[in-house]
Design brief:
It contains 8 helices and 7 strands; from the N terminus they run ββαβαβαβαβαβααα. It is α/β, with parallel strands linked by helices. The protein has a 4-stranded parallel β-sheet, sandwiched between helices. Strands 1-3-4 form a 3-stranded parallel β-sheet, with helices on one face.
């Protein structure tokens, strides 16, 4: 049986094997239960009520950071970010990319600007449980595609979010201010 970890952004934390950032667990809940062959591990800080969700293939492992979080992400097939909130640039996406993982994410806020649909991952319509399930099952059933998207995601992260470029852009801002 394969493992799919979940990434949680309820608080600024992330997750494991197929990571799912679940802010509102009710939308995808029935679709997670409908696929018992996919075990989902949730890492992060949660309300007591979240941990009581009665989903057999969902396991809460608590807060993970640094090395442990990175190992969870590296061990996953892909990361799922089913956010229902408008976010500019979720750190969970960038961490997945840094680990070479494709991302299945909500088509909301700034997420479509960093998740390149069909290239670095797949986008689904927010609150559309069928679209959510279809995208997860597609990558789960097509792991070569997920791996290829993960490679593209890593390239994208290295090209667009590396420390040298960040430093250069910051220096350019300082120079403009000083003029």
């Amino acid at each position: 049986m394969s493992i799919i970890p979940i990434l949680s952004i309820i608080s600024p934390v992330l997750l494991s094997a197929i990571l799912i950032a679940i802010k509102n667990t009710q939308s995808p809940k029935n679709k997670i239960e409908a696929n018992p062959e996919i075990n989902i591990i949730v890492a992060g800080k949660f309300d007591v009520g979240d941990a009581r969700l009665n989903i057999k293939n969902l396991k809460f492992v608590g807060f993970k950071n640094d090395y442990h979080l990175q190992k969870l992400i590296q061990g996953c097939e892909f990361v799922i970010v089913p956010s229902e909130w408008y976010e500019n640039q979720p750190y969970s996406v960038l961490e997945a990319y840094a680990c070479g993982k494709a991302v299945v994410a909500s088509k909301i806020g700034g997420i479509p600007e960093i998740v390149k649909d069909g290239i670095t991952g797949l986008l689904f319509n927010p609150k559309d449980a069928n679209d959510f399930q279809n995208k997860i099952l597609f990558l789960w059933s097509n792991r070569r595609i997920a791996k290829k998207m993960g490679s593209e995601a890593r390239k994208y992260a290295l090209t667009n979010f590396n420390s040298d470029d960040y430093y250069q852009k910051l220096i350019e801002i300082y120079n403009k201010v000083l003029k």
